């Protein structure tokens, strides 16, 4: 039997924000006919593809762009110059300013307790979840969710798989969040060490926020992420053919490469408590639920609209706000600075 001739191509990728983007692109392209392997380099924003020899490079590129364009990505032969879209801030900044004004009013009125000198409160975890749900970091979660919808819609099942997906997601964030907190309890953390972990969470969130602004190309290289073994294994769960597959897929999202999730996981570790760890991760998951539910039961895809850039910039500004508050609170705990807010 003659061995089929293969070709390797390297293309530049526009529209990537994080490691989740690389996983999503790999997943989408790997399903295309004739493609044998896909290797995404998130740092250099390139993708190497090995495929069965067929169309010309330009024709192949056009076919690939049809696959990834609906997720907000674009492949090209030549590297395109990076041009920040400053005009999007004209919409993002006022929206964030309104949020900050409401935030301050709630604090002064004593109706919410979002700022704490020694912990990330549940409302903050919920708020981070809301921000994450409109960021590219959850694009891969939305992709898994849509895959579940498409696969089971063929058999006439439309709502039950999505419900199982969300239920599995909430259960996993509660259980695994508690386990992380329990692991933290095995270590005796001093007040200083807890503050250091809080400072680390703030720095991770700060890098995420700067990255979402999409004005500094170097920001994409400073994000933490789980080893590819965990992320690829979690993503492959979607191929399981079983009635409980949507539930298992929902549970696997706890291990996907979302920087927001990982920052909350680090904080949960610092709580040293099963209950606090579980509640923190559950509050975060509940924050992501409204947008994911919207994707589940409608055709709305916020991150792929023409307003996606505004969404990301607004989300980035909010994350930077949360990060700076967390960093300042950690410095207050160790006595490095005085409290800047008297809410």
Portion in beta strands: 5-15%
Largest sheet: 4 strands, antiparallel
Rg estimate, integer Å: 21 Å
Count the strands? 4
Q: Which spans of ≥5 residues are poorly predicted at pLDDT below 50?
A: 114-118
Give the number of helices: 12
Which H/E pattern describes the elements? EHEEHEHHHHHHHHHH
**Looking at the structure, what is the overall shape?**
globular
Q: Helix coverage percent of residues?
A: 55-70%
Q: Find the structural class using helix and strand composition.
A: alpha+beta
How many domains comprise the coordinates? 2
Kindly report the average pLDDT value: 75
- Strands in their spatial order, largest beta sheet: 2-3-1-4
Distance N terminus to C terminus? 76 Å
Brief summary:
By secondary structure, this protein is an alpha+beta fold.
Write a structural description.
The model is unreliable at 114-118 (pLDDT under 50). The longest helix has 26 residues, at 160-185. This protein has two domains: 6-76, 2-Layer Sandwich (Alpha-Beta Plaits); 86-333, no CATH class. The chain is of the alpha+beta class and 343 residues long. The protein is built from twelve helices and four strands, in the order E-H-E-E-H-E-H-H-H-H-H-H-H-H-H-H. The radius of gyration is 21 Å and the shape is globular. Helix 6 (160-185) packs across helix 9 and helix 6 (160-185) packs across helix 10 (259-271). It has a four-stranded antiparallel β-sheet with strand order 2-3-1-4, with helices on one face.
